[in-house]
Recover the amino acids of this structure.
């Protein structure tokens, strides 16, 4: 039990990051390179913090905060619908940073630069674990069967997907709204679990963390997000013995991972398993995985 | 009023020198280089390290910083970005290209954190300055305007540098090859221009401009800090989107427009909202004109 006590904050952070990671991944899988989840993290966090501070019951505040993200996401999806790849990414980063600017200036609700603090603590780690499990179930549901294949087709070739009868535009918007809800959920948990919500929580570094986690773990599978969240929360702790050189080692590992495991940890494991199976079949090697496939 | 405009032009010149390299590497090589801010910082940092060790005249310091920045930028490409492009993008179609773009983005995050950690370690995470007297400050008064010699250098370097770069890209044989590379790397190789060498030129120029901007910025404010590049990175994205990816003239217009917009917001509206101008600009422009304000360059890909 003492290991759990020592690492409880890390576990909580990892769980929040898992939800934020799903927010990036749900869109990325569908070929929508959106980082708007971080902005919704801010919206969710501030909304939940504000409501709970005004004596709303926790579950209701969380639900309202997450639902608040839906119309915003819907509007944003309509506005940004035409954009693709890096341009969409830039626009969503701009959205995130606008949320930071709003948070810094809307003193009455967000507390300005000082942020919201002393939000009554009202979530347990167990509750967060259950929420994360629920979130994982939703992601798995979207990743399996025809839904997963439709997303994959949209990512690899949009016009092909369209010709196969995939409602590309609708699924894109769906993915975007779902992603916003995951981002908002992660934010509400952050605010209620750590009892503060600050502008610097939702800055550029959170965007970078979310993206690094998804790519390092494996962009196209829910298990990749979990591995990635563990990677970005635990590795800096493990490397602490290195003192100031921690970030050098961390950066080097990130570069090496991207270079040698472009499909992330999950891709690495999958390729390893395939190679082993191939050997067992008496020298027959597994077929080369198609590049760009999950 | 005129003084505010002058200040905006000086700020815009720093933006311009910084954004040029970023737009070039993005436009030509599909590298969204998040370590560009770290290269900028390393320009100022190099100046700090050199002048901390000995009293050296400013031109030498400037050249040294530019060389360090160019070398760093090339090294990043050789170590990480180029192998990624080779492995993922070449001959793999649209999906392969976007995968390489994403990988490059993350690799550049790793690179940035390495550079920031090194600078943070050497400066002990404190704000430092460049040795006093490296470039003695003179203040000139021209028709009621106040300008220092450092600011004058910034203006001249930015204008000369960007016009030279624009002419290089538009008029020279190398420039034509660069535009071809941006359009289609594979065919460019078949036509006998070496994509590898062109990529090296691009990264050297990008790094040199960023580090030059860094040392000028650090000198004018007498301020070197490991984190000094990050805010510029975000502004540069706004500028690039404003001007159109890969367009040198567009970047010039974008840099000065953003600086003027920010200064005007700071003066007439509120200093707190100044940082939001860039982000609002990105959103509005991407929606209204995703191809940039000046989509004339034929080697653009929106």
């Amino acid at each position: 039990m003492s290991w759990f006590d020592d690492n409880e904050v890390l576990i909580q952070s990892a769980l929040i990051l898992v939800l934020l990671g799903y927010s990036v991944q749900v869109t990325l899988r569908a070929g929508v390179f959106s980082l708007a989840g971080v902005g919704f993290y801010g919206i969710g966090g501030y909304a939940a913090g504000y409501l709970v501070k005004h004596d709303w019951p926790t579950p209701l505040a969380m639900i309202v905060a997450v639902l608040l993200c839906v119309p915003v996401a819907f509007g944003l999806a309509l506005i940004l619908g035409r954009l693709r790849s890096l341009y969409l990414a830039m626009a969503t980063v701009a959205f995130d940073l606008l949320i930071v600017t709003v948070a810094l200036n809307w003193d009455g609700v967000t507390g300005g630069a000082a942020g919201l603090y002393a939000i009554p603590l009202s979530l347990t780690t167990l509750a967060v674990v259950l929420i994360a499990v629920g979130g994982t179930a939703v992601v798995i549901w979207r990743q399996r069967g025809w839904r997963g294949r439709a997303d994959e087709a949209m990512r690899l070739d949009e016009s092909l997907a369209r010709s196969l009868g995939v409602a590309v535009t609708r699924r894109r918007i769906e993915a975007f709204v779902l992603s916003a809800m995951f981002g908002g959920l992660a934010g509400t948990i952050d605010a209620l679990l750590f009892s503060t919500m600050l502008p610097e929580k939702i800055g550029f570094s959170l965007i970078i963390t979310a993206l690094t986690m998804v790519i390092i773990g494996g962009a196209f599978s829910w298990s990749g997000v979990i591995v990635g969240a563990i990677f970005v929360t635990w590795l800096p702790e493990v490397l602490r013995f290195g003192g100031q050189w921690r970030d050098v080692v961390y950066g080097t590992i990130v570069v090496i991972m991207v270079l040698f495991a472009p499909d992330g940890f999950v891709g690495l494991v999958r390729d390893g398993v395939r190679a082993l199976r191939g050997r067992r079949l008496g020298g027959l090697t597994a077929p080369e995985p198609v590049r760009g496939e999950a | 009023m005129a003084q505010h405009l002058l200040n905006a032009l000086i700020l815009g010149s720093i933006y311009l020198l910084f954004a040029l390299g970023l737009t070039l590497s993005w436009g030509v090589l599909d590298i969204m280089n998040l370590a560009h801010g770290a290269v900028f910082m390393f320009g100022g940092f190099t100046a700090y390290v050199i002048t901390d060790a000995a009293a050296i005249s400013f031109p030498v310091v400037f050249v040294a910083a530019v060389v360090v920045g160019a070398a760093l930028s090339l090294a990043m490409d050789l170590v990480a970005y180029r192998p990624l492009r080779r492995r993922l993008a070449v001959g793999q179609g649209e999906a392969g290209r976007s995968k390489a773009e994403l990988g490059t983005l993350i690799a550049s995050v790793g690179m940035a954190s390495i550079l920031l950690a090194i600078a943070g370690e050497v400066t002990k995470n404190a704000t430092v300055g460049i040795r006093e007297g490296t470039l003695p400050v003179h203040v000139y008064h021209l028709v009621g305007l106040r300008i220092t010699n450092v600011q004058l250098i910034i203006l001249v370097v930015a204008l000369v540098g960007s016009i030279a770069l624009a002419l290089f890209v538009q008029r020279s044989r190398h420039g034509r090859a660069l535009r071809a590379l941006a359009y289609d790397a594979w065919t460019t190789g078949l036509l006998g221009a070496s994509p590898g060498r062109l990529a090296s030129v691009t990264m050297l120029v990008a790094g040199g401009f960023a580090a030059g901007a860094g040392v000028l910025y650090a000198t004018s404010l007498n301020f070197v800090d490991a984190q000094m590049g990050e805010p510029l990175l975000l502004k540069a994205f706004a500028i690039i989107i404003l001007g159109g990816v890969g367009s040198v003239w567009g970047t010039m217009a974008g840099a000065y427009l953003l600086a003027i917009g920010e200064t005007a917001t700071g003066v007439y509206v509120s200093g707190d909202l100044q940082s939001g101008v860039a982000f609002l600009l990105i959103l509005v422009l991407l929606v209204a004109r995703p191809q940039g304000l000046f989509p004339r360059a034929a080697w653009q890909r929106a």
User: Anything to note?
Assistant: Confidence is low (pLDDT under 50) at residues 296-302 of chain B. Chain B touches chain A through 51 residues (CB under 8 Å). The first helix of chain B runs from residue 2 to 29.
